[in-house]
């Protein structure tokens, strides 16, 4: 019998079935999403499709060329309109700053691309509604990248709630805290929510905790909130003084459709907090809680358990949801795998024509989160509770 020796794997064998990817934005999120696409084939034994990185797009040609080269894209654009119309691109992934979400995403949907967009969906409710209507009219798949839905502990929590393990949900308490703006003397360019698009904390990270509240505890039907900016003036790196209107902290009391109540909080001035996203849910039979800075554990308390108090469940077993299959039990996964699982879900929805919701956040979810955020701001201005109506 002749020895077979080295067998060559040709590109058509490695990349079938494949799906063309175009990513708009080469910054933090553009790199995170690119990393996720690369990891799809060896995270899943049988991925729904092999991502083919067709093109990246950005305004700075030197930087977009360098980033595209390092991540293995076939090429790059400096005009998003060209990216949106490229016939080889089937999924248009918008990783731009908040104020650049609407126009490119709408153009891509009109060109028949399935669209993935970073959060928040838009800058205003009107823009979010326009984006949602457009993707629905053109029949494309659409997902907002609320990656924390795809942390194994968060998905396990949803399964426990749906299975009645903690009984009737009474209350949800969630907060997302960072310290980036706590120092009044920090230059504005180093305070992400006060510079650039000047979106503020509520749009920037508050949307995440609102989405998690809806994902785990159900729809929010009323809010009463306070939104505040402490450092209303900052210096730029060149010494200029500028006014800051972007919010730095917000708190809201909310009511859920089920009758449960909750508190939501997000801040950029929480000294000592790098990126704490944490929540706790209390029910009639038990409670569950989670902290992003301890993302491989879900803490569970069940009434009547011989172990009193919360017990840590290491969500690294093959029986747990959203496992990183290349890692054995007990080998913890990192933050980036939330995006791997999110993008893996979207690929499956596109290839197998499955609905993005309820596990993924579609643009309808993004619109509703946008309306909740606007209502918190409205409540802060009036001092009154705002009842929500999703038209």
Account of the protein in words:
It is a single chain. The protein is built from ten helices and 17 strands. The model has no long low-confidence stretch (mean pLDDT 94). The chain has 391 residues and is α/β, with parallel strands linked by helices. Helix 2 packs across helix 9 (337-351) and helix 8 (201-217) crosses helix 10. Helices cover 31% and strands 24% of the residues. It is globular, with a radius of gyration of 22 Å. The chain has helices at 11-14, 28-43, 61-71, 80-85, 102-110, 125-138, 152-162, 201-217, 337-351, 363-382; strands spanning 18-24, 50-57, 75-77, 91-94, 114-117, 142-144, 169-177, 220-228, 233-235, 241-243, 249-256, 261-267, 276-283, 286-291, 297-302, 311-314, 386-387. The chain folds into two domains: 11-147, NAD(P)-binding Rossmann-like Domain (Rossmann fold); 149-333 and 359-387, Dihydrodipicolinate Reductase, domain 2. The strands form three sheets. Strands 16-15-14-13-7-12-11-8-17 form a nine-stranded mixed beta sheet. Strands 3-2-1-4-5-6 form a six-stranded parallel beta sheet, sandwiched between helices.
Briefly summarize what is shown.
This protein is an alpha/beta fold. It has two domains: 11-147, NAD(P)-binding Rossmann-like Domain (Rossmann fold), CATH 3.40.50; 149-333 and 359-387, Dihydrodipicolinate Reductase, domain 2 (2-Layer Sandwich).
């Amino acid at each position: 019998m002749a020895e077979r020796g080295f067998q060559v794997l040709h590109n058509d064998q490695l990349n079938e079935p494949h799906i063309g990817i175009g990513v708009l934005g080469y910054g933090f999120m553009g790199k995170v999403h690119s990393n996720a696409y690369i990891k799809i084939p060896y995270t899943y034994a049988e991925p729904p499709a092999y991502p083919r990185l067709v093109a990246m797009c950005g305004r700075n040609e030197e930087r977009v060329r360098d980033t595209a080269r390092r991540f293995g894209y076939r090429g790059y654009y400096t005009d998003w309109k060209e990216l949106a119309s490229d016939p080889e691109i089937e999924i248009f992934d918008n990783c731009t700053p908040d104020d650049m979400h609407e126009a490119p995403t709408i153009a891509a949907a009109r060109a028949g691309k399935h669209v993935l967009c970073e959060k928040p969906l838009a800058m205003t409710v009107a823009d979010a509604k326009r984006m949602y209507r457009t993707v629905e009219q053109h029949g494309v798949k659409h997902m907002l990248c609320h990656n924390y839905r795809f942390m194994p502990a968060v998905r396990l929590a949803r399964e426990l709630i749906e299975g009645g393990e903690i009984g009737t949900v009474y209350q949800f308490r969630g907060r997302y805290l960072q310290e980036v703006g706590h120092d009044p003397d920090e230059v504005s360019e180093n305070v992400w929510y006060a510079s650039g698009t000047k979106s503020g904390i509520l749009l920037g990270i508050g949307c995440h905790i609102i989405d998690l509240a809806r994902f785990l505890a159900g729809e929010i039907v009323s809010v009463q909130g306070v939104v505040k900016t402490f450092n209303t003036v900052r210096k730029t790196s060149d010494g200029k003084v500028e006014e800051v209107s972007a919010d730095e902290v917000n708190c809201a009391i909310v009511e859920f459709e089920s009758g449960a109540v909750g508190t939501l909080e997000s801040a950029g001035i929480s000294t000592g907090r790098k990126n704490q996203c944490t929540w706790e849910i209390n029910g009639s039979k038990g409670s569950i809680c989670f902290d992003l800075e301890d993302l491989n554990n879900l803490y569970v308390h069940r009434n009547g358990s011989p172990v009193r108090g919360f017990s840590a469940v290491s969500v690294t077993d093959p029986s747990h949801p959203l496992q990183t299959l290349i890692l054995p039990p007990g080998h913890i996964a990192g933050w980036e795998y939330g995006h791997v699982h999110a993008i893996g879900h979207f690929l499956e929805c596109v290839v197998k024509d499955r609905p993005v919701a309820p596990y993924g956040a579609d643009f309808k979810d993004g619109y509703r989160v946008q309306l909740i955020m606007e209502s918190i701001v409205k409540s802060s201005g009036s001092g009154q509770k705002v009842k929500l109506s999703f038209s």
